[in-house]
């Protein structure tokens, strides 16, 4: 992840609304750059599975329907960044989510000698809604279809077993709009913070280009800052 002539590895902080293709880009970047993709959701699940003290604390909070506090999430991230595979750089996905987390992360990265780069994947919300609302799932086997890019051979029926295709509850337009509004409320202060931080901050339009083309653009940005 380190471009020629750079002394410090990069910490890539990846943002993007639901349906923006952020998950796809995280996977492609992990393959292309050879660095770990660190998802806070994955970390929480792994820590719970480990059964250690912190994992038990997290499990108790989640079972009680409570949010995991910033201090706990920060500890998880700090522990993960200390692992050897992060020495050459990494991709952060789902963290930070709050301004206090962002401030802690900035100090942590500076202390470890990492260059911080933020990439915000922007996609027109009309396109996101059309993408997600056009998804269908087989009611029997769970196979996913896209009415735009991967439609079933027979409308409304699964190619594999002929079962009815349904719209998942979280793919309904009103649910999608609520998720996008929540994303805006949550990330707007963070994006303002990062854009004013003095560290490289890039916004990439992911509305129309292919995933590979977007990947190439992000890699080009990483090479220059």
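Q: What amino acid sequence fits the structure above?
A:
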């Amino acid at each position: 992840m380190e471009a020629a002539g750079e002394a410090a590895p990069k910490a890539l902080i990846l943002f993007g609304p639901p349906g923006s293709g952020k998950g796809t880009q995280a996977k492609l970047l992990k393959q292309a750059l050879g660095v770990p993709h660190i998802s806070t959701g994955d970390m929480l699940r792994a820590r719970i599975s480990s059964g250690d003290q912190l994992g038990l604390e997290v499990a108790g909070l989640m079972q009680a329907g409570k949010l995991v506090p910033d201090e706990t999430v920060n500890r998880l991230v700090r522990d993960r960044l200390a692992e050897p595979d992060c020495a050459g750089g990494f991709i952060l996905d789902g963290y930070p989510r709050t301004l206090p987390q962002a401030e802690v992360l900035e100090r942590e990265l500076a202390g470890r000698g990492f260059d911080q780069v933020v990439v915000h994947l922007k996609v027109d919300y009309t396109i996101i809604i059309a993408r997600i609302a056009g998804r269908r799932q087989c009611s029997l086997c769970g196979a996913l279809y896209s009415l735009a890019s991967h439609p079933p051979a027979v409308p409304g029926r699964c190619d594999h077993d002929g079962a009815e295709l349904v719209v998942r509850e979280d793919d309904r337009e009103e649910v999608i709009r609520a998720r996008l509004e929540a994303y805006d409320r949550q990330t707007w202060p963070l994006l303002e913070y990062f854009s004013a931080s003095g560290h490289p901050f890039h916004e990439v339009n992911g509305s129309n280009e292919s995933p590979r083309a977007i990947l190439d653009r992000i890699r080009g940005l990483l090479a220059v800052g």
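Q: And what stands out in the fold?
A: The two ends are 11 Å apart (CA to CA).
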